[in-house]
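The protein record filed here:
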Amino acid sequence: MYPGDTWERTSPSEAGLQEAGLDYLRQYLGGRGCVVRRGRMVYTWGDFAERADVASAAKPWYAHFLFKAVEEGRIPSLDEPVSKWEPRLNDINESLANKDRAITWRHLANQTSCYGVQEAPGSAYDYNDWQMALFWDTLFLKVYGATYESADAEVVRPRLTDPLGCEDDPTLMAFGVDDRAGRIGVSPRDFARFGLLYLRKGNWRGTQLIDERHATMAVTGPLPLSIPRTTGQAAEMIPDQRSMGSTDIPDDQTDHHGSYSWLWWVNGQRRDGTRFWPDAPTDTFAALGHANGKRGMAVVPGLDLIVAWNDTLLDEKPSDPHPLNAVFKALMEAARG
């Protein structure tokens, strides 16, 4: 089941969910959002049609357009050196053997490029907003040949949001072209369409909008625990490098917890042996932005269920276990009721 111009609505009970559990979810999260099951809109709260910035929850969209660039033959491989497109990478960090020459698209799309820190590409994990800006600018401005002003019309709409039938005109310029260009503005109900695309392994109404192999790999390939978190020692970046958000140098925001897969968060095994979300199925995946995933979207494949949200209270919750665990626990209980 897929939405058409609008989402088909059904009640929680008709979708096999207890409404009391969804009421708890709404109260716990606050903000605004929606729940989709089996391709139908089941439950909403707040203005779930409001388009707004989703912060780092945008990152899986960047990976999506990287995979599309490979499928369209714009780049030959995820392991192509990014310096082919951004030659200034060849000239920095001479004292570190010009390490950035070895950065590949795979590194950027898993935050292991070590751009801006001293480790060699692929040897450590560094959640880094300077790296994301390098990734975005090289992919959209050079590989796709767009501009900040044209990226929505030339890249996003024809390849993703128009085929998905998005209702609220998602944009890569949530704050405009002069402020953190590339930050995605999207409504919860449109973000749920993106989640449904990956729940359906890249297929939308019989058409593969992204190859099934890429759609599956994106949410099932977390970094191994053998990859350490960066030591956070600053290294040279190219001149005039911008950031997608953070202005810290070096930028080292979190570990990958064995749960980071192509800019998605998945329910992997953390360094202490526990699951990232202990009460969620192991195939759960999510796009998370701001502290504790205050803005984002999650998919529980075994329940054929998607929840999308924004402006929630998650940043005010204790971070261990991850506060989204309570969301998944409530959804599981609602489905069992």
Q: What stands out?
A: The radius of gyration is 19 Å. Residues 19-229+245-336 form a domain with the Beta-lactamase fold (CATH 3.40.710.10). The longest helix spans residues 129-143. The chain has a mean pLDDT of 97.
